[in-house]
């Protein structure tokens, strides 16, 4: 039986409560998620932002702030820099977006003095628990990398492997997706998928199994793979990671799943010094809590790797 989000939460509890720094914390949805994350033993939080507004919102949520550290900084840009510095300095295990636009939040992540740059590629990973699929499914990149090159895709894979391992998938099967499952020189995506497969077979990409190009049905549906005669493929409907050719394909699939299926999911930004929780205002309360849990297990995996 594959891993579920309940397994991720259980794993967090085994490795100890983590701490998340919140950028511009006067956000009701984020405070509600932080409250729940602490109640479940997932993570404590440092709330950086306009303290009177934070307390006003917390009162409306019947949220006791006595156990939370609050750093008063009414200026949003300065609050984001103060919060990210906590993660940069090791005083927080992860960094989360509050009531600040994504552009300025990402500027704090990339700040040369106090940000979370590692010199590598940043990419976004979504983890889904979907009815009818007996394992967690990892989607990348659906929100950050627009038109990844072959080199970018290599780095996206390298960023995603530790997330998979943190969630209990030791040797993730990675499917570089395309509209077809054969190489067509007129479709560059298929050529790059084949090159990623070759690199893995040659030992240039390790810690995973790569098989592409693959159509989406072959990647996730064993029956489809069987009917199409794909019995010689390394992945036959049992992919763990769906690697998308560009942000359009990834984002469309992500939103189709979220808005058409009852799922559990969480998302983080990877390739940073610590996991970054970049949720959308349209994301559900549960998605925000799941994202904190996901970031917590990834933070623990990164700690053990140091």
Key descriptive features of the protein:
single chain; 306 residues; alpha/beta; Rossmann fold; Isopropylmalate Dehydrogenase; 5-stranded parallel beta sheet
SSE order and pairing:
Blueprint: H1 5-15, E1 18-23, H2 28-39, E2 43-49, H3 51-60, E3 69-72, H4 76-88, E4 94-97, H5 102-109, E5 123-129, E6 137-140, H6 150-166, E7 173-176, H7 188-201, E8 209-210, H8 216-220, H9 222-227, E9 241-243, H10 247-260, E10 264-270, E11 276-277, H11 285-305
Parallel strand pairs: 1-2, 1-4, 2-3, 4-11, 6-9, 7-8, 7-9
Antiparallel strand pairs: 5-6, 5-10
Question: Can you tell me about this structure?
Answer:
With 306 residues, the chain is an alpha/beta fold. The chain folds into 2 domains: 147 residues, Rossmann fold (3-Layer(aba) Sandwich); 137 residues, 3-Layer(aba) Sandwich (Isopropylmalate Dehydrogenase), CATH 3.40.718.10. Helix content is 43%, strand content 16%. It is built from 11 helices and 11 strands. A 6-stranded mixed beta sheet has the order 8-7-9-6-5-10, sandwiched between helices. Strands 3-2-1-4-11 form a 5-stranded parallel beta sheet, with helices on both faces. Strand 2, helix 3 and strand 3 form a beta-alpha-beta unit. Helix 1 crosses helix 11. It is elongated and about 60 Å long. The chain starts with a helix and ends with a helix. The mean pLDDT is 93.
């Amino acid at each position: 039986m594959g891993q579920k989000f309940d397994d991720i939460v259980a794993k967090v509890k085994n490795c100890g409560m983590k701490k998340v720094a919140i950028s511009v914390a006067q956000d009701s949805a984020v405070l509600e998620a932080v409250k729940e994350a602490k109640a479940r033993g997932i993570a404590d939080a440092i709330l950086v932002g306009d303290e009177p507004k934070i307390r006003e919102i917390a009162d409306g949520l019947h949220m006791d702030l006595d156990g939370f550290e609050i750093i008063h900084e009414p200026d949003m840009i300065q609050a984001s820099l103060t919060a990210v510095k906590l993660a940069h300095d090791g005083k927080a295990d992860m960094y989360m977006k509050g009531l600040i636009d994504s552009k300025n939040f990402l500027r704090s992540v990339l700040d040369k003095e106090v940000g979370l740059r590692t010199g590598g590629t940043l990419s976004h990973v979504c983890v889904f628990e979907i009815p009818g699929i007996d394992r967690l499914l990892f989607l990348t990149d659906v929100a950050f990398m627009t038109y990844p090159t072959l080199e970018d895709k290599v780095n996206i894979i390298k960023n995603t492997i530790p997330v998979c391992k943190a969630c209990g998938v030791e040797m993730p099967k990675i499917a570089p997706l395309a509209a077809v499952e054969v190489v067509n020189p007129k479709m560059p995506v298929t050529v790059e998928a084949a090159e990623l497969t070759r690199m893995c077979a040659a030992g240039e990409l390790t810690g995973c199994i790569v098989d592409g190009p693959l159509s989406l049905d072959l990647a996730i549906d064993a029956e489809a793979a069987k009917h199409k005669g794909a019995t010689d493929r390394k992945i036959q409907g049992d992919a763990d990671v769906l690697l998308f050719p560009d942000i359009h394909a990834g984002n469309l699939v992500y939103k189709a799943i979220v808005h058409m299926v009852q799922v559990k999911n969480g998302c983080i930004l990877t390739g940073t010094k610590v996991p970054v929780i970049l949720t959308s205002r349209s994301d559900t309360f549960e998605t925000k809590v799941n994202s904190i849990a996901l970031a917590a297990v990834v933070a623990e995996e990164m700690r053990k790797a140091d």
